Amino acid sequence: MARESKKARAERAGEIYELLADEYPDAHCELDFRSAFQLAVATILSAQTTDQRVNSVTPTLFNAYPDAKALASADQADVEEIIRSTGFFRNKAKSVIGFARGLMAEHAGKVPESMEDLSALPGVGRKTANVILGNAFGLAEGVVVDTHVKRLSTLLDLTREKTPEKIEQDLMELFDRDHWTMLSHLLIWHGRRVCIARRPKCEECVVSHLCPSSRV
Ligand code: SF4
């Protein structure tokens, strides 16, 4: 494939964004939450599973442990039992309790609003921090790079990097800051509905004419 200039890639990225935004005007975070605390816990639970699976356990979890104070003093085995179906439940139980304890110890039980403070908490990496900042606080500090964002930005040749951190940097350069949070939602929605991992529906794809991986 001929090398694309930086400018041409940025223009193509802008067109892709507009077309996906038209296609999915309601794109949003599909985890159910009512507070930054709930979103943080749900995001930690969402590793290696679907948002639907997480949404099926969080009502029970948040009923039993409505805030950081309650979760910080939870019995790990009880939490494990509730979240078992999300997989990796022992580690996840440890992570969400550790997160709640960190909140109590460092932030009086309140979820902090900065990347630095969030990513210093147990169980929270840059991806989770980006989800919380973008969706609970409306702050664009970065782009959430999950498995869909990684796969689609590669297929669309928006990046040739391999690690989430470097992919995120490429996307941050290509897209306006006020699009960063929505960009992840759009790529995730497209990845779940059309650009499906094992059988991308290129013939139904609104950005196929802008996609170097298109099969049509
Ligand atoms: S054209 Fe095909 S590979 Fe490219 S984004 Fe669309 S569905 Fe995915």
Chemical compounds bound to the protein? iron/sulfur cluster
Q: Helices and strands, in N-to-C order? A: HHHHHHHHHHH
Q: How many helical stretches? A: 11
The radius of gyration is 18 Å
Count the E strands.
0
Query: Which structural class do the helices and strands define?
Result: mainly alpha
- Cα shape: elongated
The portion of residues forming beta strands comes to under 5%
The main β sheet shows up as: none
Helix fraction bin: 55-70%
Mean pLDDT: 97
N- to C-terminal separation? 16 Å
Sequence stretches where pLDDT stays below 50 over 5 or more residues: none
Task: Describe the structure concisely.
The protein is mainly α. Helix content is 57%, strand content 0%.
Structural account:
- This protein is mostly helical and 216 residues long.
- The protein has eleven helices and no strands.
- The longest helix is centred in the middle third of the chain and has 19 residues.
- The protein is elongated, with a radius of gyration of 18 Å.
- The model has no long low-confidence stretch (mean pLDDT 97).
- The site of iron/sulfur cluster (SF4) has 13 residues, from loops.
Describe this protein with a few key phrases.
216 residues, mainly alpha, elongated, binds iron/sulfur cluster
Annotate the secondary structure layout.
Blueprint: H1 6-23, H2 36-45, H3 51-64, H4 68-72, H5 76-83, H6 89-107, H7 115-119, H8 126-136, H9 147-155, H10 164-174, H11 180-193
Helix pairs in contact: 2-8, 5-6, 9-11
This protein binds iron/sulfur cluster (SF4).
Iron/sulfur cluster is lined by residues 155-156, 194-195, 200-202, 205, 207-208, 211, 213-214.
